[in-house]
Every structure is written in C-alpha cells, then in structure tokens.
UniProtKB/TrEMBL annotation:
This is Urease accessory protein UreG. InterPro entries: CobW/HypB/UreG_nucleotide-bd, P-loop_NTPase, UreG. The lineage of its organism: Bacteria, Bacillati, Actinomycetota, Actinomycetes, Micrococcales. SUPFAM superfamilies: P-loop containing nucleoside triphosphate hydrolases. Residues 224-247 have a biased composition (Basic and acidic residues). The keyword Cytoplasm applies. The gene is ureG. One of its GO terms (cellular component) is cytoplasm.
Length: 257
C-alpha cells in the first residue's frame, strides 16, 4: 500500500477513566516514549482549571505549545461525548498549527466509571483503571471498561501494597471485554511501557491504512448531578443518543457524581 502518512489526518486518541487513575501520567509516558519518532499534540479537559495541561507542560515531555487545555465549564463528559465542539476545534487548531501531526492525545476530565468518547471526536480510546481502585472494579464493567479499544490496569507497582492480584484483575477484565486487549501498566516497568508504545504505533498504522474503524463503546450510564438550584439537590441524567432527551444544566451549576 502507498505511504499515505501525509494525506491522513492525525490519529486522535482518547484517554478516559476515573479520577486519579493516571491518565495524565500515561499521556506523559506515551509522549516520553514516542516524541522522538512521532509528531504529537495533547488536549486536556478539566471542568474549571487547566491543571492537567500545566502538569504535562511541566513534565517537559513536549513543547509547551503542543499541549492545549479545554475548560469544559460543565458536565465534563458532555465535552467528549455530546457537544464535542470545543474539543474538535482544539484538535483542528493543534493539527493546523503543527501540521502535520501524527497523534493527538485527548484526556477526558476525571470522572466516575462511565465516561466514553464519541467516535466523532476520537478514532480510538483507552480506558484507564488503577489497582488502587480495587481488584473488583474491572468486573463491574461499563462501556469504557467493556469496549474501549484498550483497557489499561495502571500502577501495577502499587499492587503489593493494596492487596491486588494483577493477573487476576487482568483476567477479569479480559472476560468483561470478551477478549479485547488489556494492558497491565506501571510507568516504572519498562516492559509494560514498551507494550503501550507498540499498541499506539499499531493503532496509528491501522488508522493510516484505513483498517481501524472507530468504535462507540456506548453511552454512559445515567448518573447524578448535584445542583443547588434543583429542588432535590440535583438530578439524574443520561447521555442517551437523542440530544433532545437529556437537557444539560446551564454553565456554572455545580456538579458532583
Ligand atoms: N505508583 C504509581 N503512581 C502513579 C503511576 N501513574 C500515575 N501515578 C500517580 O497517580 C496520581 C494521579 O496521576 P494523574 O496522572 O494525575 O491521574 P489522572 O487520571 O490524570 O488524574 P485526574 O486528571 O485528576 O483525573 C499521581 O500522584 C501520579 O504520580 C504509576 O504507574 N505508579
Ligand atoms: Mg489528569
């Protein structure tokens, strides 16, 4: 097949998962492993801050200008799932400013277990769990755990301290995912970082060849949003496919999960 690396836009790779499981650190690890051979850009999503972008800039793994923050200002998963405009604009800006880019990594806002990216925003997505969240969490399933392109079980170096059996957690995850790939990762385990690097390169190759079809892991489960102005102190909403059926609160409302 002809080399069409110049004609295919950058691979957009989403990184989602619960708060603190190591999404930003994983992006820093990917940048460290691949910045020498690929042209990379990063977009972070936070509700009210640009903390993740600042962390990644200070990690010194990419030129600071290649790392952009989207402040979602509301439900953080809306910005990666329903109204993806801000993220699409940020990706297009990065791709134009540093043309050509090979990969744009997009970190979702830290969340509960339910966030997934729209396939209209990313070509492929990783879902990140960590061993500190408990060995059972992979069994609990959910769209990201079940159907993201890669599930990462992160911080395996901590497993002895939190009493988690990593092979068992990986086996549970493989079952929940019907064989889709699972990677046990620690940033301090070079072999696991090498596997992550190969997975990204493989996905980039498939994207360029047109053999990878972006998958929708499915809408997130209904979840609770705290809202001081709501008579019940909040409301449950879902991200069903029909945008008319799930009104979103005005910007500025407080949120909790
Ligand atoms: N032991 C260990 N700690 C890790 C590893 N990866 C990340 N951490 C630590 O886990 C904590 C959270 O990491 P982040 O990368 O900020 O996690 P995050 O998912 O981006 O967090 P939010 O964006 O706030 O949701 C930090 O203290 C990291 O240093 C790892 O492989 N091993
Ligand atoms: Mg982060």
């Amino acid at each position: 097949m002809a080399d069409n690396t110049a004609s295919v836009r950058a691979l957009r790779l989403g990184v989602a998962g619960p708060v603190g499981t190591g999404k930003s650190s994983l992006i820093a690890t990917i940048c460290r492993a691949l910045a020498g051979e690929l042209r990379l850009g990063v977009i972070t999503n936070d509700i009210y801050t640009d903390e993740d972008a600042r962390f990644l800039r200070s990690a010194g793994v990419l030129e600071p200008e290649r790392i952009r923050a989207v402040e979602t200002g509301a439900c953080p998963h809306t910005a990666i799932r329903d109204d993806i405009t801000a993220n699409l604009l940020a990706a297009e800006d990065l791709e134009r400013d540093f043309s050509p880019l090979d990969v744009v990594l997009i970190e979702s806002g830290g969340d509960n277990l339910t966030a997934t990216f729209s396939p209209a925003l990313v070509d492929a997505q990783l879902f990140v769990l960590d061993v500190a969240g408990g060995g059972d969490v992979a069994r609990k399933g959910g769209p990201g755990i079940g159907r993201a392109d890669l599930l990462v079980v992160n911080k395996t170096d901590l497993a002895p301290y939190v009493g988690v059996d990593v092979p068992e957690m990986v086996a549970d995850a493989l079952l929940a995912r019907e064989g889709r790939p699972v990677l046990a990762l620690s940033r301090s385990d070079a072999d696991s970082v090498a596997e992550l690097r190969l997975w990204v390169l493989g996905m980039l190759e498939a994207h360029r060849r047109g053999t990878h079809v972006p998958q929708d892991p499915g809408p997130m489960a209904p979840h609770f949003h705290a809202d001081e102005e709501h008579p019940d102190g909040g409301y449950v909403h879902s991200h069903a496919e029909d945008a008319d059926t799930h009104p979103h609160p005005h910007a500025g409302a407080s949120h909790g999960h």
